[in-house]
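Supplementary Text 2. Reproducibility record for the structural model of the 350-residue chain.

All settings were left at their defaults, and a single model was retained for analysis rather than an ensemble. We include the record here because the model underlies the residue-level annotations in Supplementary Table 4.
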Amino acid sequence: MPLTSDHPLLDGRTGTSPLVRAYRGDRPETTPVWFMRQAGRSLPEYRELRVGNEMLDACLTPSLASEITLQPVRRHHVDAAIFFSDIVIPAKLAGVEVAIVPGKGPVFANPIRTAADVAALRPLDPEALAPIREAVAMTVAELGSTPLIGFAGAPFTLASYLVEGGPSKDQLRARTLMYTEPQVWATLLNWCADIAGEFLVAQVEAGASAVQLFDSWVGSLSEQQYVRRVAPHSKRALSHLRGYDVPKVHFGVGSGELLRAMHGIGADVMGVDWRIPLDTASERLGGDVPLQGNLDPALLGAPAHVLEAHVQDVLDRGLSAPSHVVNLGHGVPPETDPDVLTRIVELVHG
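Retained model, structure tokens:
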């Protein structure tokens, strides 16, 4: 189903915004900028709002999710909002028991490790996505000409959480399952791809002007593993958006060696972490792919002149791509001074 005529991309609100133009390979007069994890822990107004509200409950309370999404746009004047949620939300809505443990992250009560565990997973009922649609619609109504980016966790990262039972440094259990039970692995990743894809569709239909697929843990894979065991499932996740003309960004941490393969799943824009320069990334992608990134989050705590030189270097290297959206090479660390992010926006826009 194509976008409806009142969608922000079609009704004049966001279709010609700097972000959407850059995502479509058209370099706008001002380089757009937003930050992964711009909503949340680094903002005092977020911490105030979260008092007495569990993380996943906040994600599923439309008024809260919307307000948290809007906070960094008001404060930093970034060129996009990214929907405030969590990559485990689609799994929770499909009936998987999960909690966010402070200081640790998502923890699953019953990790998925056998064929029987995978067979017990239920499809995601579209009705369960009602709070997501409502939150997106509320947010888009407030954003005006600022685009909202929808997002989902890529199948490998989501499956890794499910198999490991929570965050993991090296995804050993997940990668062992990938090698030893390829059929179980493929079935699990297809399930993850479908719930991620439906999560993306709900956000787009409710008004998101672009989407980003996050493969946070993909850096633990070799290119061969990725191409054989993961890429088809990431492609399946994005294939849910077939017919919806929205820009699709793909981002992975530690993915410098995988950029070409990750772009090949159907992404329009590649996010680049801080480990390789943007001009190197552009060269690896053939010089014709819009890029997003790649400020080093470590420099958010550096002296102003050091950070400013780094921002300028990233902007200069971004000229090697058809277009460039400034972002961090990963998320905003919780201890970041919000004024530093505002200053980066001013530098980029200036």
